[in-house]
Design goal:
Elements: H1 2-13, E1 27-29, E2 39-43, E3 46-50, E4 57-59, H2 64-70, E5 73-74, E6 77-80, H3 94-97, E7 104-107, H4 115-120, E8 125-127, H5 135-142, E9 147-148, H6 161-171, H7 175-195, E10 204-208, E11 213-216, H8 221-228, H9 237-241, E12 246-249, E13 261-266, H10 269-277, H11 280-283, H12 286-289, E14 293-297, H13 301-307, H14 313-328
Parallel strand pairs: 4-8, 6-7, 8-9, 10-13, 13-14
Antiparallel strand pairs: 1-5, 2-3, 10-11, 11-12
Helix pairs in contact: 6-7, 7-14
């Protein structure tokens, strides 16, 4: 494997080596202003200088393609997370693709980025902002093209969607456009908070039945979404989770789930509800008795978008989730939240 990687790297980055015939042509390469380059971007493993406006961007991070599309740039390669959407382009971002060809989808099978396939795409920029890239993986990718790893200010997979958008904008020479996009979405949050003052002061969190009761913490984008709408996390939730984006909790700590609203991501709504309500401890919580649960079926765009929070998916999430949150906290247990 290492020999093959080395061979590919030599082929791609060697002096004067031509791009492989199999590499697709740049797609809708709306590059940034030349005056914005070179630009140096700090990250977890140091800093990376991007010498010129990139034309062939590969995303190793799991959701940077949306920020690129919002800025008018179609990446040549994306890394699939879930959903198996063509090109790893979610339905909330589909319109931004226009008539351009879809990116080649790369898969992280658990052993890290597919270096050979990435090199074959001949990128001039690799983005790994929403990732858990190791230093070794970063160094290997850097031999292919300038690579921007995840920021050191946040936990792995913890960078907020605003920061993803702005950093992608800087990397492609469109910082002002990225800032404008962020403001538009933040204005939308402000509008929703204005429509729903009942959210303010309520506690709330997101959770899933992955290997038991898995709850997300304050640095996970999902719970940041609730925070942006006015909800607050339980005060002692992060203490129970530790320095992670989320963690399993024991039945003895199910009191943490007794919040103003809880959003469950489940494989199947009926089965998930049956499993949860079959637990006498959980069923006895007020959040259950007062009908303040919201269930999101995994594998559907509304659920996928909640996990895949970006400058393009957030408006879609607000359209689909906010009415259900409002129904959950309206004080009437009979109100349906689905």
């Amino acid at each position: 494997m290492l020999a093959l990687v080395a061979l590919v790297l030599i082929t791609i980055v060697g002096c004067g080596s031509p791009r492989p015939a199999a590499a697709p042509a740049p797609q809708a390469s709306a590059t940034g202003a030349a005056s914005a380059f070179p630009v140096t971007m700090p990250h977890k493993y140091g800093s990376t200088t991007i010498p010129a406006a990139p034309e062939r961007v590969v995303t190793v991070g799991l959701l940077e393609q949306d920020s690129l599309l919002a800025l008018g740039i179609v990446p040549v390669g994306t890394t699939e997370w879930f959903g198996e959407y063509p090109g790893a382009i979610g339905p909330w971002a589909e319109a931004k693709l226009g008539g351009a060809a879809r990116p080649q989808v790369l898969k992280d099978t658990g052993s890290g980025p597919q270096f050979e396939k990435i090199a074959a795409l001949a990128p001039d920029l690799i983005l790994a902002l929403y990732s858990g890239l190791t230093k070794e993986q970063y160094e290997t990718l850097s031999k292919i093209a300038p690579t921007v790893a995840q920021p050191k200010e946040y936990i792995d997979y913890g960078i907020p969607w605003q920061e993803v958008t702005k950093r992608v904008g800087t990397a492609v020479g469109k910082p002002a456009e990225a800032q404008s996009l962020v403001k538009q979405v933040e204005d939308r949050f402000a509008a929703e908070k204005g429509k729903h003052p009942e959210f303010a002061g309520q506690t709330g969190l997101m959770a899933t039945l992955y290997e038991g009761y898995f709850v997300f913490g304050s640095q996970d984008p999902r719970n940041r979404l609730l925070g942006s709408l006015g909800f607050q996390l339980p005060a002692n939730l992060d203490q129970a989770i530790g320095d992670k984006f989320g963690a399993n909790i024991s039945r003895e700590r199910l009191d943490l789930l007794d919040t103003g609203v809880i959003v469950w991501s489940v494989t199947d709504v009926a089965e998930g509800e049956q499993t949860l309500h079959g637990d006498t401890v959980y069923k006895a919580l007020d959040v259950v008795k007062q009908g303040r649960e919201v269930y999101l079926p995994e594998g559907t765009p509304p659920s996928d978008a909640v996990a895949f929070l970006t400058v393009l998916s957030v408006p879609y999430v607000l359209d689909t989730l906010v009415p259900r949150l409002a129904a959950a906290v309206d004080g009437d247990p009979a109100t349906k939240t689905s």
